[in-house]
Automatic annotation (TrEMBL):
<feature type="transmembrane region" description="Helical">
    <location>
        <begin position="621"/>
        <end position="643"/>
    </location>
</feature>
<dbReference type="Pfam" id="PF00528">
    <property type="entry name" value="BPD_transp_1"/>
</dbReference>
<feature type="transmembrane region" description="Helical">
    <location>
        <begin position="1004"/>
        <end position="1026"/>
    </location>
</feature>
<protein>
    <submittedName>
        <fullName>MALTODEXTRIN ABC TRANSPORTER PERMEASE PROTEIN MALC</fullName>
    </submittedName>
</protein>
<feature type="coiled-coil region">
    <location>
        <begin position="263"/>
        <end position="323"/>
    </location>
</feature>
<feature type="transmembrane region" description="Helical">
    <location>
        <begin position="884"/>
        <end position="905"/>
    </location>
</feature>
<keyword id="KW-1003">Cell membrane</keyword>
<keyword id="KW-0762">Sugar transport</keyword>
<feature type="transmembrane region" description="Helical">
    <location>
        <begin position="799"/>
        <end position="821"/>
    </location>
</feature>
<feature type="transmembrane region" description="Helical">
    <location>
        <begin position="672"/>
        <end position="693"/>
    </location>
</feature>
<feature type="coiled-coil region">
    <location>
        <begin position="173"/>
        <end position="235"/>
    </location>
</feature>
<dbReference type="InterPro" id="IPR035906">
    <property type="entry name" value="MetI-like_sf"/>
</dbReference>
<comment type="similarity">
    <text>Belongs to the binding-protein-dependent transport system permease family. MalFG subfamily.</text>
</comment>
<keyword id="KW-0472">Membrane</keyword>
<feature type="transmembrane region" description="Helical">
    <location>
        <begin position="728"/>
        <end position="754"/>
    </location>
</feature>
<dbReference type="GO" id="GO:1990060">
    <property type="term" value="C:maltose transport complex"/>
</dbReference>
<keyword id="KW-0175">Coiled coil</keyword>
């Protein structure tokens, strides 16, 4: 049989440390499963990569298909355009007038060309070196020829114009001299001269007949071409459809081949590893007896080794505990000894003797040797040195005392003590490594941990000692500087330099002020220059301070501890990185059924598996505390134990009907029971989801542990929480708020709609029952009472209101934003402030004021103005007409809402880079094209979600309807449901809920309508958001 394998996080495999480990049949089965799982994981990763590549390829092919189809469509249009172009050109054959106009245009173009030819020739001849007489001769000849041509063409124009007049009068293609003389053609003098005086009547007739003949030829030609074009169009469309279908089939085949290719590879690889797993399990089953026999033979030896290791571990632990107590005592002696050495330095005492005695006493103390002579000698000398210090009344004692207190303050003592304990811990880990080195990979792991901690202790101890030495030197230098003879003189010199700098600063400030008075610089430049001068002055003063040795020492002393802790933090990170690397690279002994045990334990009590199986103590404690809170708070509450006003989850069965008793005063409120039941369900779902997620996480960690990979430490968990997990942590409160503030009331409303809450069933006085979908079927029950009419009126006006008010608000706000954003507009800040005012004033104040000015009496503001202007004779009752009130509502909502849209669009307009417009202008795009091709697409992409929200707000805008019109005025033919002319769905539901309309279970019926209206608004919003997201991804 093969050896049992272990894996680390880098996918490296390891053999078990010794062959005397337990050869359990389970481990061989697990080995086969582990190999399969790792191969499956690699295949799945490859599949994910291949799938992403396929999706990219599919997207590229889809885009390429769209481009090809677009190209094909353009080619078809071009072919059709070419085919129909000849027909358009032959439209002159529709009427003789068009043909004559065509011929006239040709002659006029020819005359224009002749004129241009003469002008251009004149310019060329003028700049030539020929003789003037030659130039005149040539030019006269050119002009003479041009005039002859013009005369001929003008005569042709006369014939064509006369023919045109004749055709307009007769509408006939036949012409005779008699007809010409009989008809009054209104000819001009020039036309009379050419036709009649010069006897060109025959030529006119000939020209007219020629035009008629040409018209017939063109008509015949057009008929033939139209027939040909029809055939061509059919062929072009047929070819286009064939090419389009072929193209679609081609790209579909390419996409299918690509998908089949990566699915085939995945399927084949899966089949291969399944066959390998099957073969391995068969081999293990064949050798089952051999494995069990081998395990039985080595069982005694395994037990003996385990017992020996257990004894060694216990002895090592006891030794570690004793050393901890000893280390705490030794730490105090060490601090006192360091203080004595410091006193020796400052009182010039020889410290050789006390150092020698300390070494002897330290060795005896650590080795637990009771040598009273060495101890007495050391403490006798120690007391002598201390007495010298205590009996000194000079300033030196104060200096030494201050240096001792500063050098060995509470924080330094704490760090030294902690470092000593860490040193002891590293030794303990080293002993554990020696014990476990030959039996498992835990020995290697403890060795790495011990070396890392030992190195940290050494490095940090050096840093602490360097910090203490630096502090002592600084304190000594500060003391010498304070008592130096030239200390006062140095202070005066420093102050005089500061004063000089201040004088220079004030002079420069005065100069700038004079320049501002003379208006040589602007106010902004003055403010900026003053700030700059002030900053320069402060920097120069700080530079002077830094040049002062005393200030430098104070600064170093102040930052001594912070620098020490910064170095500690860096060393600690290095230590942690070594541990993390060891966790990833060194495997651990796989545990039996770790995944299943972890799943079951965490399903019952999250966090317990982390402590018992994975040794993640901090994470386990936190999860146990959280799950305990859930078990003690949420679960009892969900079953109605903490609050007698709700019945918990079980209360949803009968909504308190079973305990309802008027005589005993027990009247449970069904509304509380419904909402409490919904909240209880959500709390139970939260607890179950928490337990299930903890169990799944434990199962995954167990799978890793079964393969030999170490579970993640608390350090890794904290690192994940601070980076990838941070968005999840900050999102959880938001999700909970959404669930309990939005989703729970929505579900409560849904449940109420399945009951008969309302008229004749008002809680808590009466019992509420479940009635199923009865409330949703009332439209059929009350159809003869006008419910369908009510619904049609209310829903119709709701959609008109939503879209008209919504679009008008967006259009008005957008126009104002674009106008104010224009660089031609001055006082932009003033206009922006003006446009924000309608939004800044509370809406209900504006609505009440506008309602008052449209009252029916003559003294109302609008009526008063119109009467004084003579437009009306007496006051108009605006609230008596449904159409007027609806119009006023839309205008008022536009006034109230356009400011918000104005702000949104202004912000987006200001965020558009000017470079885009400049690039567009360079490419020749004018302002209108820049607006439609740059501004509009950017605004639509960024504002679509907000605009969808605006429509949803309009759909449910109860405030303005209720305050301005109260839903009125009433319809001429009202129904029993009392819907009015301006009632939208939400305001009508409010009437039904508040008892204005008395029908059985009106509250539940209103809830049903709320659910239906919410479905409409949510549906539209979801569709809009989905389209916007799809557009963004595209």
């Amino acid at each position: 049989m093969e050896k049992i394998k272990l894996w680390n996080w880098y996918d490296q495999s390891f053999d078990k440390k010794i062959d005397d480990s337990k050869f359990d049949y389970y481990f061989y089965k697990q080995q086969a499963t582990n190999v399969y799982n790792r191969q499956k994981l690699a295949i799945d990763k490859k599949k994910k990569i291949d799938k992403n590549l396929f999706i990219k390829a599919k997207r590229l092919l889809t885009n390429e298909k769209k481009r090809s189809l677009s190209t094909l469509k353009i080619a078809k249009k071009n072919e059709l355009r070419i085919a129909t172009q000849t027909i358009k050109q032959l439209n002159i054959s529709n009427d003789l007038t068009k043909l004559i106009n065509f011929e006239i245009n040709k002659i006029e173009a020819k005359l224009q060309e002749s004129k241009k030819y003469v002008e251009n020739y004149y310019k060329l001849l003028k700049n030539s070196t020929d003789d003037l007489n030659v130039k005149k001769t040539i030019m006269n000849e050119i002009i003479s020829n041009a005039k002859k041509v013009e005369i001929q063409e003008f005569e042709k124009l006369v014939y064509l114009n006369v023919a045109k007049k004749f055709y307009k009068k007769t509408k006939s293609l036949e012409i005779t001299k008699k007809k010409i003389t009989q008809i009054n053609l209104d000819l001009s003098a020039f036309e009379n001269e050419i036709i009649f005086e010069k006897n060109n009547l025959d030529f006119l007739i000939k020209t007219y007949l020629h035009l008629g003949q040409k018209l017939k030829e063109l008509q015949n030609k057009k008929t033939q071409i139209v027939a040909q074009v029809k055939i061509s169009k059919k062929e072009i469309n047929k070819k286009y459809l064939e090419d389009k279908n072929n193209l679609k089939i081609k790209y579909k085949d390419r996409i299918n081949k690509a998908e089949y290719s990566y699915n085939k590879d995945y399927f084949e690889q899966n089949q291969k590893i399944k066959e390998s797993l099957k073969h391995a399990n068969e081999k293990i089953a064949q050798n089952k007896d051999k494995i069990n026999e081998l395990n039985k033979n080595k069982l005694e030896k395994i037990k003996a080794l385990a017992l020996e290791e257990k004894r060694a571990l216990k002895a090592n632990y006891l030794e570690y505990k004793k050393n901890l107590i000893l280390a705490k005592k030794y730490y105090k002696l060490y601090i006192n000894h360091q203080k004595v050495l410091l006193i020796c330095n400052y009182y010039e005492k020889d410290k050789t003797q006390i150092d020698q005695l300390w070494k002897k006493y330290k060795n005896n103390f650590l080795n637990k040797v009771d040598d009273q002579q060495v101890k007495n000698d050391y403490f006798e000398l120690y007391k002598k040195i201390i007495n010298v210090y205590e009996n000194d009344n000079s300033y030196k004692k104060q200096v030494v005392k201050k240096i001792i207190n500063k050098s060995y303050n509470f924080l330094i003592k704490y760090e030294l003590r902690k470092n000593a304990l860490f040193h002891l811990k590293s030794q303990h880990w080293q002993n554990l490594a020696l014990i476990k080195k030959d039996s498992s990979y835990e020995g290697d792991f403890y060795e790495v941990k011990s070396n890392a901690l030992s190195q940290y202790v050494i490095d940090y101890s050096n840093e602490i000692n360097n910090s203490i030495i630096e502090k002592q030197k600084i304190l000594e230098e500060l003391f010498n500087q304070n008592y130096a003879k030239n200390n006062l003189e140095n202070k005066q010199v420093f102050q005089s330099k500061v004063d000089n700098l201040k004088v220079d600063y004030l002079l420069e400030k005065a100069k700038v002020k004079k320049l501002a008075k003379k208006k040589e610089i602007t106010k902004k430049a003055l403010v900026f220059t003053n700030k700059k001068l002030k900053i320069d002055f402060k920097e120069k003063v700080n530079s002077l301070k830094l040049e002062n040795p005393k200030y430098q020492n104070k600064l170093l002393l102040k930052t001594n501890l912070s620098r020490l802790f910064s170095k500690k933090k860096l060393l600690h990170k290095i230590y942690q990185s070594k541990i993390l690397e060891a966790q990833k690279s060194i495997p651990t002994e796989n545990k039996k059924y770790a995944s299943k045990k972890g799943f079951l334990i965490n399903l019952i009590l999250p966090g317990l598996a982390e402590i018992l199986i994975f040794k993640q103590y901090w994470k386990g404690i936190l999860l146990i505390l959280l799950s305990s809170f859930f078990y003690l708070a949420f679960v009892p509450f969900s079953f109605g134990l903490y609050w007698n006003k709700i019945g918990g989850v079980q209360g949803l069965v009968d909504l308190g009907a079973s305990i309802h008793n008027h005589e005993k005063g027990i009247t449970p409120d069904a509304r509380y029971w419904i909402f409490g039941g919904v909240v209880s369900i959500f709390l139970l779902i939260l607890v179950i989801a928490f337990n299930l997620s903890s169990a799944i996480q434990a199962y995954r960690n167990g799978k890793f542990l079964e393969q030999g990979m170490r579970p993640q430490s608390w350090i890794q968990t904290k690192k994940w929480l601070s980076k990838q997990g941070f968005p999840w942590l900050i999102s959880i409160p938001g999700w909970l708020l959404i669930v309990f503030i939005v989703v729970a009331p929505l579900f409560a409303s849904l449940l109420i709609s399945f009951s008969n809450t309302g008229f004749q069933h008002e809680p808590p006085g009466r019992v509420v029952d479940w009635v199923g979908f009865s409330q949703y079927g009332k439209w059929w029950i009350f159809r003869n009472n006008g419910l369908l009419t009510s619904l049609f009126r209310v829903v119709g006006w709701t959609f008109i209101w939503t879209f008209s008010a919504g679009f008008l608000v967006i259009i008005v706000g957008g126009i104002f934003a674009i106008l104010v954003n224009s660089h031609h507009i001055k006082f932009k800040k003033f206009f922006r402030l003006i446009y924000i005012i309608p939004w800044a004033i509370p809406a209900f104040v504006t609505i009440i004021f506008l309602k008052s000015i449209f009252q029916a009496d003559d003294d109302s503001l609008v009526n008063h103005i119109l009467i004084n202007l003579g437009i009306i004779q007496k006051g108009v009752n605006y609230f008596s007409s449904i159409h007027i009130v609806r119009f006023l509502l839309i205008i008022i909502q536009t006034w109230l809402g356009h400011s918000y849209i104005f702000l949104l669009i202004t912000g987006n307009l200001q965020s558009i880079p000017r470079d885009i417009y400049e690039a567009g202008a360079i490419d020749g795009a004018k302002r209108n094209r820049q607006f439609f091709y740059i501004t509009m697409p950017i605004l639509i992409n960024s504002l679509t979600p907000l605009l969808i929200g605006q429509f949803i707000f309009m759909f449910n805008n109860f405030t303005i309807i209720n305050l301005f019109s109260g839903g009125g005025p009433a319809f001429l033919r009202p129904t029993v449901f009392l819907e009015a002319g301006t009632d939208i769905i939400i305001s009508w539901i409010y009437k039904l809920t508040t008892g204005v309309v008395q029908i059985e279970g009106n509250t539940a019926f209103a809830s049903a309508l709320v659910i239906l209206s919410s479905s409409i608004s949510v549906g539209f919003a979801s569709y809009g958001f989905a389209k916007n997201i799809a557009k963004g991804e595209k």
